[in-house]
Amino acid sequence: MRRKIEKAIRESFDFPKPQHMDEFLSRAEVISAEEKKRNRGTPLKFRVSAAAMACLVAVGLWADLRNRSALSDMDLHGNENIIAESTGSSSDQPVTACGDSDTITTTTAVQQSAACTTTTSLQVRGTGSYAVTSSTAFTALGAAGVNGVTVSVPSRTNRKETTTTSTISRNDTATTTTRAKTNERIFNVKKLGAFATAVLASSPDVSIPDNADYTLPYTRLHKGEADIFEEFKAHSRDLDLNKDGVFDLKDCYELFLYSNGYDLSAAAAGKCSSLGVGSVTEAGDNEWLTPKNAVRYCIVTKGLRITDLDASAYPDSAYTEAVPLENRQSHRSSELFISEVYSESRALMAGYPLLSEAISAGRLDPDFDSSGTFDITDYVYYSIWSANLWRAGTENESKVWELPENISGSCAEFCQTADELTHDSWSSAYLVWCLMEKEPFRSGYDEAQFYDSFIPVEYRPYYSPDINFRTYCEATGMKEYLLTFHADKFNRYFDTFCSDVEAGARPAPDVNMDGAVDKQDYYASDIYLGDILCGRTAQESELPEDVFNNIAANCDYNGNGISGDIYDILITEMYVISLDNDVCESSGETAEVLSRNDVIPDINALDKERSGDANCDGTVDMADVLLIIQSCCNPDKYQLTESGRYNADVSDTGNGITPADAQALQLKLLNS
Amino acid sequence: MSVDIKEQYEKIFRYCYYKVHDRDIAEDLTQETFLRFLESPHYRDMGKELHYLYTIAGNLCIDSFHRKNGEELSECITDDKDYEDCILTNVALGNAIRRLPDEDKEIIMLRYVNEVPVSVLSSLFGVSRFKMSRRIKKILDTLKKDFQG
What is the largest CA-CA distance in chain A? Predict the structure, then answer.
C-alpha cells in the first residue's frame, strides 16, 4: 500500500518541462570543464618544493631560536638564562659594577627589547647586613649571618637595564647574577610561529594560474627540438655562464658573444670552450649548443618579457682580433642579439606574453569599440580588420566589410604598437589568449555560426574569427578534438608508450580485454575508429558494448586525458603491427608480401612506386595513414584528392584505396 | 558523491517551480543555481553537492520572493492555490496533499518526485535522519488515510 501511495504521489505531480535545459547544459559543460581545470590541484613538484622550502626555513628559524634566550616563569619548558654575572667586593668592584665603599651597584643591560622578567641573586660571603635593591623599587632587606646566603629579587621591567644595588660590609664578596627571559609565549608557540612563517614565506612560490598558460603552437617547433630542449634542461646549471643562479637570456647573450667572436670575460669564455660551444674560429663539440637553440629554449620554457628585449640589459662587446674585418657587423652586439631573439620569437609564435604584459600595463588598449571593456566584440572587430588588411589589393577586395572609422583607427593603432612590440604579425591570434585572461571561454566561440550575429550575412563567408579560437581550444584542451592529429605528436606518443610498456610501466594495449594483444585488438580499434568517424554509439557499433566502452574509457595511451582518441587508436594499431605482422593477413596477404609490395610497388606492372603521401603534404607519416582510414570509413566526409588517391594506393596497386593500404603504410612506417 | 548536472537540472527546476510557481522564473533560478554551484570559488568536493544545490536553489527562491514582494502588484492577482492545481493532477490524492502543511508538502515533493535521499532532506530541514524518516512515514500515513477515505 505504501508503495502504491508513493507511486501515486509521484504521478500526481505534473511539472512542466524546462525549456532551455539543453542550451544551458551545453554551456554548463564548458563552465564545469573550466572550473575543473581551474581547481586542478597544484602539481606535485610544486607542492614538494614548497614543503621542502618551508621545512628549510622552519629548521633555520628553529636553530636560531636555540641561540636565543629562553627563560622566565612564563615559559613552562625553558630554563632561565644568565645574562650577566658579576663578582666583587666593595673594594674590588666587578667590571660591571660600580659603587662606593659599602655598596655594589650592578647595571645589567638586558638584551631583549620586549618586556622581560629579571631575577637578581646576590650571594654574599662573609658577615654583615646587606640590602639588595632593584631599579623597580623592589627592595629586599635582611641580615646575612651565614656564608653563602642567596637572596633573589625578582622584578619585571620594560627597561633595557636592571640596576641592582647591594649594601654589604667592606670586606665581603658579593656575586650578583642577573637572569632574564623575554616575556613571550612559551617556547613551543615560538616553534609553531616559525613554521607558520616559513609556510607563508614559501606559499607565493606555489603559483596557481587562473587561466590556461599560453601554449606555443606545436607546429612551430623543429623536428627533434624536444630532445635538444632536454639537453638544455639537463645542462642548465652548467650553462649559467653569468653565475646568477639561472640559465636565461643573459646567458644566451654570453653564448652569442662567444659564438660570434666577441670579447667575453675569461671565465665565461673558458666555460663556453669547455662546454664545446662553437665559435668563428673553431667548431664546437656540441651541435645542439648554439645561441639560436639556447634562445629558443629560453623563449619556450620561460617566455619573453618586455625587459628581456631591452638592449641596454646586454652590455655591448667588441669583436676579438680573431674575427676577420670583412666578417664584422656594423651593428652593436646587443642589437644583433635582440634581433636574433625577435627572429626566434616570431618563428615560434611566442610573442603573446609581450602583448599580455603590454595590455596589463596599459600600453595597449584592445577596447576597439570604446565600450569600456575588452570583450568578444573587440576581438571580432580586430579579426575582421586584420583580414581586411591582408585582403587589401587582392581580387577579394570587393568582399571586404568596412568597419566604422573609429574602430578601424583603434585597430590600426593597436596593430602597429603590437607589431613593434612583438616584431611579428600574430597579434590576432595572441588577442584570443589575452581575451581569455579577462573572461571565460564560452561555447560557440570556436564555431563559425557563433559569429553570424556579429558579421553582416553577405560578408559572413569571408571571415573566420573562429579559427584562432579553435587553435586556443586545441592548445588548452578546452575542447579536445577526437580526430585532431599531428604526426610528430604521434611519433613522440608512440615511442613513449612503447618504452613504457617495455619497462612495465603500463600494460600493452589489450583493447578488447581478451588477455592478449593481437590482431583482434587491431580490428577492434579499427572498427572503433570507423564508429567515431561515423558518429556511431556503443549500441550501434559492431563491437561488443563492453569493448567499445573500454576503448572509450580506459585506453588513454597518450595520456592526454581522452580515451579512444585518434592517437590511442593508432598507437594500438601500430603496437599490434609491431608485435604481430600476421595482422596484415586481413587483406589476404602476409606482412612479407605487403612489405614487398612497398618495396616493389610495380608488381602489377604499373608505373612507379607509390609514396603513400595521401594528404599530398610532401611527407609520408601517420597523418597519411589516418587519412586513408578516414576515407575508407567515411568516404563522403573524407575525400582524397586525385594525386592523394594515387599516392595512397600502396598495397595491391591498382585495386583502389582499401584498409590494406593503411596497414601497408603503417608497416612501412614502422620499418623505416 | 558527484552530481550529474543533466540529471539534477530537471529536479532543481521542479523544486524551483514548486516554490515560485512561475515557469520562466523557475528556469532562471535553476540556471542561476547551477551557475553558482559550478562557479563557486569556495566550494570543494565535500560529498554534499546535492545538499549544496538544494540550499542554493532554496535561497534563490527566497530571494526571488523578496524581489517579488517589492514589485508593484499587477491587476491580475492569482491565488497561490491555483498553481498547485496545475501541479497536482490526481484529484483525490491532490486534495490530500493540498491539506498538508506547506513544509510537509515540500518534503513529499522532494522525497518522492525528486527522489532526494533522506539524509539530504534531514540536513536541509535541520533534523536528524530518524526524525525525518518518522516524519515522512507520518505524512504518508496521513495521506493514506485521506486518500482512502
Answer: 132
Q: Using CB atoms, which residue from B30, B35, B88 is nearest to A18? A: B30
Domain made up of A81-185: CATH architecture: Sandwich (2.60)
Residue A272 scores a pLDDT above 60: yes
Nearest CA in chain B to A23: B31
Grid look-up 609514396 returns A611
Q: Do B113 and A16 touch (CB under 8 A)?
A: no
A636 touches chain B (CB under 8 A): no
**Grid cell in block for residue A436:** 581569455
Is A9 close to B18, i.e. CB distance below 8 A? no
The pLDDT of residue A88 is 52
Task: Tell me the domains of chain B and their CATH numbers.
Answer: 1-77 (1.10.1740), 89-149 (1.10.10.10)
Residue spans of the domains in chain A: they are: 36-73+186-208, 81-185, 221-349, 354-476, 487-579, 585-671
The two most distant CA atoms of chain B are separated, in Å, by 52
Chain B residues inside the 8 Å CB shell of A16 = 17, 23
User: In the predicted model, what is the mean pLDDT of chain A?
Assistant: 72
Burial of A448 (0-12, 13-18, 19+ CB in 10 A): middle
More confident residue, A103 or A510: A510
Interface contact A208, partner B, CB < 8 A: no
DSSP letters, B50-69, are HHHHHHHHHHHHHHHHHHHH
Is the dihedral angle over the CA atoms A349, A354, A359, A363 positive or is it negative?
A: negative
Query: Closest approach of chain A CAs to the CA of B77, in angstroms?
Result: 22
Chain A, residues 13-42, CB within 8 A of chain B, namely 13-21, 24-25, 28, 31-32, 35, 39
Up-side HSE of residue A10: CA atoms within 13 Å toward CB?
Answer: 13
CB-based contacts of A467, cutoff 8 Å, min separation 6: none
Helices and strands, counts by H and E, chain B: 8, 0
Whether residue A655 contacts residue A588, with contact meaning beta carbons closer than 8 Å, is answered with no
pLDDT tens by residue, A36-83: 655 555 566 677 787 788 788 877 777 766 665 554 444 444 445 555
Q: Which CATH code for domain A585-671?
A: 1.10.1330
- Inter-chain contact B113–A21, Cβ cutoff 8 Å? no
Cβ A6–B13 below 8 Å, yes or no? Answer: no
